[in-house]
Amino acid sequence: MKLDKALGLMREVPDFPQPGVVFRDLTPVLADPDALRTVVDALQDKLAESTQVIAAIESRGFLLGAALGYGWRYGVVPLRKPGKLPVVADSVSYDLEYGTATLELPADAIHPGQHVVVVDDVLATGGTAAAACELVERAGGIVTGVSVVLEIAALNGRSRLAGREVSALMAV
Q: CA-CA distance, 147 to 62, in Å (whole number)?
């Protein structure tokens, strides 16, 4: 399946999670085995060769990160919302386009010097990705890139990731 056809399965949900926000739902892409394979392969093509670990952002980043980890033998570290991890190494709070949030890093998951790619479904304002990069670096990891399926260019999330390699399969 071609990438544009796979990404064409994505749907827009207006006014979710609140009025004025357009949610980009990857569920139809994830549910189609050919589309999922196409998207994961395209993400892999953009990763640095030195990648050792995928830092997967809750929750859709988990699905993409797990597929990348299994398919190409990377470790996968889930970056979670508060209260989900039994042992937390660190946490970072950040602003979203519609509020604030916190990400937590599990203890002993990222080791100093490991090359880590941060993976998520969407790059919007960049707050979540920037927080993920901060967690990885505070643990001693080296962020070799941020990889997403969709970038909402109008929200200028790349500006919060200045100096980092950012790849998106699609921008709107």
A: 13
What are the backbone dihedrals phi and psi of residue 162, each rounded to the nearest 5 degrees, phi first? -55, 135
Helix, strand, coil fractions of the chain, as percent rounded to 5: 35, 35, 30
Query: Treating both helix axes as pointing N-terminal to C-terminal, what angle do 60-72 and 33-45 enclose, rounded to 10 degrees?
Result: 70
Catalytic residues: 60, 97
Contact status, residue 119 vs residue 68, Cβ threshold 8 Å: yes
- How far is residue 54 CA from its own chain's centroid? 9
Identify the CATH number of the domain in which residue 109 sits. Answer: 3.40.50.2020
Number of H helices, E strands in the chain: 5, 9
- Domains in the chain, number: 1
0.85 cut: is pTM over it? yes
**Residues 75-120 pLDDT 10s:** 999 999 999 999 999 999 998 767 789 999 999 999 999 999 999 9
